[in-house]
Amino acid sequence: MGDRQHAALARAMALPCWVAPHGARLLGGGKTNHNVLIEDAGRHFVVRLGHDIPEHGVMRFNELAISRAAHAAGLAPAVHYAAPGVMVLEYLDASPLEPADVRAHLAPLAALLRQMHGEVPQHLRGPILTFWVFHVIRDYGHTLAARQSPHLPLLPGLLAQAAGLEAMVGPVTLTLGHNDLLPANILTDGSRFWLIDWEYGGFNSPLFDLGGLASNAGFSAEEERALLTHYFGTPPAPALWRSYQAMKCASLLRETLWSMVSELTSAIAFDYATYTADNLAAYRAAHQDLQSL
């Protein structure tokens, strides 16, 4: 365990919200923050440690507000304590999904997304960020250029493709999105599903969450059509299907550029170079498929 991990455990144990904390241990999976599991007064909590990350548009005031709203909507754990750089959540006795789990539960997960998009905005308080993926992509392009990324030769072509995708998406319905629907951010206790990790939450098109879920869980085209049919209540018309596919490509491109930036800026121990290569390959494959529509 490195110095940063030891510091994370010490900081989590020293928070003023505890009675008699013990059993602190690091949880895996965080690419932008440290997560610590702690027991106190007979209950378990997860401590999320992470400051604002402006280059990724992550602002912790926004994550906190959406986390509280998602709990009020019955979709996320309660916030037990919050301070700058710290959010303590109730621990859920639930397991993260694997891609195969997502593909096996299309109807209930489509219902979960509908509930999130429809109900979480009703509980929001204060200013909330907008997550427009094409702005995010352009901003990443500026960051990579300013920092002289080794991926710089790829940027003109990728940004030109992004402009084409934005035009293809067309007008959107604005709602509150999670915007980071990795299978591991969906938990189940065997009877229901929960959503966690709202650091990229913000107003967006629902197509981004649908496309992100499908690409992160490796959906086939048939599974994608089934997901959209469950979500919208009718099979997708050609125009919606094309818009959705363009947004799915944008979600993959955004993840690729996110990783390129993280290669330069992140202090978290994670193999960003391999993550970049994997996402770039997935994006290129999806973009190639889009050309045939």
Automatic annotation (TrEMBL):
The record's section on CDD domains has:
ChoK-like
Q: Would you say which domain of life the source belongs to?
A: Bacteria
Aminoglycoside phosphotransferase domain sequence ranges: 25-239
Print the keywords alphabetically. Answer: Kinase, Transferase
GO terms classed as biological process: phosphatidylethanolamine biosynthetic process
Listed GO MF terms: ethanolamine kinase activity
Q: Does the keyword Transferase apply?
A: yes
The record's GO CC annotations read: cytoplasm
InterPro entries associated with the record: Aminoglycoside_PTrfase, Kinase-like_dom_sf
Q: What is this protein called?
A: Thiamine kinase
Q: Which organism is it from?
A: Gemmobacter aquatilis
